[in-house]
Amino acid sequence: MANHSGRQLASKWAKTEALLSHPGLAPHIPPTRKYSPQQLQHMLYVHGMVVIKPIVGSGGSGVIKVMRTGDGGYSFTHRDRTQRYGSFDALAGALRSKTSNRNYLIQKGISLATVNGKPIDYRVKYVKTFGRWEYRSLVGRIARPGLFVTNLSQGGRMVLAGEGIRSSLGASHVKAKKAKMREITVMATRVLEQRFPGISHLGFDYGIDRGGKIWIFEVNTRPH
């Protein structure tokens, strides 16, 4: 049984479905679908930019950004390389080799607030010890120049969350955004604990877009 729940917990899809069930959390989750060429075409039509990521996996290495371009074509970016295609069929064919080895999901792309032109997102570590949940850290992660993923394993730089919010949105936002991230963390932890009893280490990946809205990108159940 433990093995089954561990597999389920590793699945971004299972956790996304659990969080979407809560009306206070659902507005903070980017629209998400299981990957297929048909879903990709639909999501690109609706959103213009999407992110494709492995349903099981971490570290940002398999994450691909896909965009509709102004000339009616498409592009995808993996790590620091961008490739362009004139048609959706050509794009889908190129992605087939990238996505055939694992199951992926598609998420609406979020235009993150930036620090000196580099995207920043946030990691909140929340840990249960002796029956009580407590915060271990709340940090910002600034992408390495030329990359859109902020993972430290991909060269991202860590800053205190307050410093990141101040640098990307302005000092007047720091208190409210940190409080909102904490509020969402508590709400989401209650939902996940009901659905997956026994969890004790959570890592929340948050993004704040250019308009100041907070998004939940992912919840890691065995955070590094």
TrEMBL record:
Q: Which SUPFAM superfamilies match?
A: Glutathione synthetase ATP-binding domain-like
Show the Pfam families listed in the entry.
Answer: ATPgrasp_YheCD
Superkingdom in the source lineage: Bacteria
State the InterPro entries in the record. YheC/D (IPR026838)
The name under which this protein is listed is YheC/YheD family protein
- What species is this protein from? Paenibacillus pinisoli
The lineage is: Bacteria, Bacillati, Bacillota, Bacilli, Bacillales
